[in-house]
Design brief:
The protein is of the alpha+beta class and about 230 residues long. About 35% of the residues lie in helices and about 15% in strands. The chain has helices at about 15-25, 50-65, 95-110, 145, 150-165, 175-180, 185-205, and strands at about 5-10, 45, 80-85, 115-120, 130-135, 135, 140.
């Protein structure tokens, strides 16, 4: 059985941030959701009472004022993390505790002030988290502090797997070991959508009358204690 801890990330420029937030806000417009009826179970956390774009633009102005130089338009200002696990583990993990562990790892790794927003998605194939980390650090945007070297990426993967070990999850083999090409988040989302569409067609063609749906777990309200 696959029991992998899965962590993927994608770096963004300011111009892409608005589209990211629309994706989470208008989920009813998304195609091929496995469990649209579970949308009400999705929860979210926002550090500031404003959009991420506004938060990041304030940081850009602060950097420009402090340095007297314009922030480059291609500067990486935000990193999106998708945190999840092998689909086979869906009903074997306490989701409340898993979310808490993820929040703790994010805060310990990047700092509480860097976590701008966090969303859980229960309405897609496998329960997962989207977390958005600002790269603004010590008065300037500095994505290379965490993602500048190959060794840093390996350390992040190792650190995340260690934090998820309590749930029986393990780190997958590195691409150096498997020879596999790294998937970007865009490629991963596309592959997931195609896989889900295929599964839905198979389900429609093979209706099982005795299939029983497992009730989803409710999520406790104290999962964000780490951020208080």
């Amino acid at each position: 059985m696959n029991n992998y801890a899965i962590m993927r990330f994608q770096k963004y420029k300011l111009g892409s941030v608005a589209n990211i937030e629309r994706h989470q806000k208008y989920r009813e417009r998304l195609h091929n959701r496995a469990h649209p009826e579970r949308e009400k179970e999705n929860i979210s956390y926002s550090q500031y009472n404003e959009t991420m774009r506004k938060t990041l633009k304030r940081a850009i102005k602060a950097q420009e004022k402090a340095t007297g130089k314009k922030v480059r338009k291609d500067a990486v200002v935000l990193t999106e993390f998708v945190l999840t696990f092998s689909p086979e583990m869906e009903n074997q993990i306490d989701k409340n505790e898993w979310i808490k562990a993820n929040v703790k790892w994010l805060c310990k790794t990047f700092g509480k002030d860097k976590l701008l927003k966090l969303f859980t998605n229960a309405d897609e194939k496998t329960f997962h988290i989207h977390a958005y980390i600002s790269t603004f650090d010590n008065g300037k945007f500095n994505a290379s502090k965490y993602f500048g070297k190959k060794s840093q990426i390996i350390e992040l993967q190792d650190s995340y797997a260690a934090a998820m070990a309590q749930f029986g999850l393990i780190r997958g083999e590195s691409k150096e070991q498997t020879g596999a090409k790294h998937q970007t988040l865009h490629e991963w989302h596309k592959a997931e959508s195609e896989r889900l569409e295929k599964e839905l067609i198979e389900m429609a063609n093979n209706v099982l009358s005795d299939e029983k749906e497992i009730a989803p777990q409710s999520l406790e309200s104290d999962i964000f204690d780490e951020l208080r």
